[in-house]
Specification:
Nucleoside Triphosphate Pyrophosphohydrolase; disordered C terminus; alpha+beta; 8 strands; 4-stranded antiparallel β-sheet
Length: 160
């Protein structure tokens, strides 16, 4: 079995009743909304990762205003022809961010293709990754220990 650990940092940026999201293709090609953020580079501090990723995916510069929490999940991908089963472990740090500059733009040649402000009330109707729901709960509930105590949410189909 192959093991894969991915550590990533994401930002919840909310202003005027809207959340900043990016759009990314799911494994089947269907567009889905994601939080701006992504994988850490070797030797990079997660604080720097989230600021870099938000700038790359949305054009905005942010000030990190807090650590909301950590989301961790594992996903076993099935064995495919000539490929062993892979045990993916995603460790995702969720920060709160405030826009300090830049202009909204779409990423070119990256993992996302579109960025937009979405009304918080519209989020439940969006095609989105599970992390958005987790992150919004962390933002609303602000658990002191940075972890949601509710039963596990359904697994995601990809290891964003």
């Amino acid at each position: 079995m192959r093991r894969n650990l991915r550590v990533a940092a994401y930002a919840v940026c909310v202003r005027d009743g809207q959340i900043l999201l990016a759009r990314s293709p799911a494994p089947d090609g269907t567009p889905e909304w994601v939080l701006p953020g992504g994988g850490m580079e070797h030797g990079e501090d997660p604080y720097d990762t989230v600021r870099r990723e938000v700038a790359e995916e949305t054009g905005y510069r942010i000030r990190v205003t807090g650590l909301l929490g950590v989301d961790s999940f594992r996903l076993l991908s099935p064995r495919r022809r000539l490929t062993p089963v892979t045990d993916h472990h995603a460790l995702r740090l969720v920060y709160e961010g405030e826009i300090t500059g830049g202009e909204l733009r779409h990423e070119v040649g990256g993992s996302t293709d579109f960025a937009a402000w979405q009304d918080l009330s519209a989020v439940p109707g969006l095609t989105r990754v599970r992390l958005i729901d987790v992150a919004l709960r962390l933002w609303r509930e602000r658990p002191a220990h940075g972890r949601l105590e509710e039963p596990a949410l359904p697994r995601e189909t990809n290891a964003d």
